[in-house]
Amino acid sequence: MMKLKDLGFDQWFETHFDALHQDGHGIARVSAVDRGSYLIKNELREIPAELAGKFQFRIESSVDLPCVGDWVTVQYHNDDTEAIIHGVFPRKSFLRRKCAGENVDFQMIAANIDIAFIVQSCHFDFNMKRLERYLVMAADGHVEPIVILTKSDLISHSELEQKLAAIKQTVAISKVFALSNITGSGFDEFQQVLIPGKTYCLLGSSGVGKTTIINRLIGQNTFNTNAVSGTGEGTHTTARRQLIFLNQGSMLIDTPGMREVGLLGVSEGVKQGFEYIIELSEKCRYTNCSHTQEPDCAVLSAVTNGELSKERYSSYMKLKKESDYHEMSYVDKRKKDRAFGRFIKSAKKQMKD
Ligand SMILES: Nc1nc2c(ncn2[C@@H]2O[C@H](COP(=O)(O)OP(=O)(O)OP(=O)(O)O)[C@@H](O)[C@H]2O)c(=O)[nH]1
Ligand SMILES: [Mg+2]
Ligand SMILES: [Zn+2]
């Protein structure tokens, strides 16, 4: 039988137990969340759980709902094979990001994390600005960051050395690992970071190899991985956040790749009215059009025929370059939003008038 301590329940949480405790309730850790359903892990096993009804009335923001890594108080039923979540322990540390839109609202990614592995591929995905945003995210939640560059097999040794030096210099972080899941190079040093009883979270864009790292640690292909599509637009292979228990005793949270770390700058951009350009870009011949030289580029032709000002175009290109087009893809989601659709309609009308 495991102890809660082995799952990360330490003195800090114990001091909060009295405030949450109710007779007959146990303590468990949230190991997966999929929409409204939960998996929790206790000393004996992993079982499904649901939220007690009172959560619907008591929470003020989705941040107050349990997320992966949270410690919760639960009531067991059905021979201890199911549970109802009654309370959430305060979070010792957390990873969260800003939601799209004007409000400063957050979405929880994971809680009670000792170390965040910020994963970038040293190949096409490498981006210092994005790395900085992840570092801010970790600092914000009191999580120690470690940078991991994957796919070291795809670049030369000297290129790799340059990247490592650039990272250490630019973001002043000492713990940077490079590894290859293919050749195994660098993997041993990385593995030595993993301490039993501690919780780690893998963060990074889709396709950088987060799940592949986990499969390699487990020693088998337990979790799905997928090749990245040529446009970099591939779907997220990992669909939900999940706490994985390694045999050697440490815990690792896999997350679906994120494209929306740098939301603040981008939503500023949205305010300035870049929706029109994004809408135009859907009419470009190529879906991954860079709007610089491609044939049948709707954005360029709008500049040529005066529908789009040169200033607007160049400030958009500047923003695009800065924040990586991928990270703006939440705008696509917002377009489905009806209010946003109306906004676009009226903007179009204004253009005509
Ligand atoms: N060349 C090379 N390919 C790798 C390496 N690590 C992972 N890959 C490949 O990269 C692709 C994406 O890997 P995943 O582990 O699915 O990436 P992920 O970060 O989990 O992606 P999401 O779940 O979508 O967030 C797969 O085809 C892997 O085989 C590596 O070190 N070198
Ligand atoms: Mg994955
Ligand atoms: Zn274009």
From the spread of the alpha carbons, the general shape counts as globular
Tally of alpha and pi helices: 12
Provide the CATH topology of the largest domain.
Rossmann fold
The CATH fourth-level homologous superfamily of the largest domain: P-loop containing nucleotide triphosphate hydrolases
Mean pLDDT: 81
Query: Order of strands in the sheet with the most strands?
Result: 10-9-8-11-13-12
Keyphrases for this structure?
Ribonucleotide Reductase Protein R1, domain 1; 5-stranded mixed beta barrel; OB fold (Dihydrolipoamide Acetyltransferase, E2P); 6-stranded mixed beta sheet; binds magnesium ion; alpha/beta; 353 residues; single chain; Rossmann fold; binds zinc ion; binds guanosine-5'-triphosphate
Quick take:
The protein is an alpha/beta fold and 353 residues long. It has helices at 11-20, 55-58, 128-140, 157-171, 187-191, 210-218, 263-271, 275-281, 298-304, 310-323, 330-336, 338-352, and strands at 26-34, 37-41, 46-51, 71-77, 82-88, 94-98, 106-111, 115-121, 144-150, 176-178, 199-203, 242-245, 251-254.
Topology:
Elements: H1 11-20, E1 26-34, E2 37-41, E3 46-51, H2 55-58, E4 71-77, E5 82-88, E6 94-98, E7 106-111, E8 115-121, H3 128-140, E9 144-150, H4 157-171, E10 176-178, H5 187-191, E11 199-203, H6 210-218, E12 242-245, E13 251-254, H7 263-271, H8 275-281, H9 298-304, H10 310-323, H11 330-336, H12 338-352
Residues 150-151, 153-154, 180-182, 206-212, 225-228, 236-238, 256-257 line the site of guanosine-5'-triphosphate.
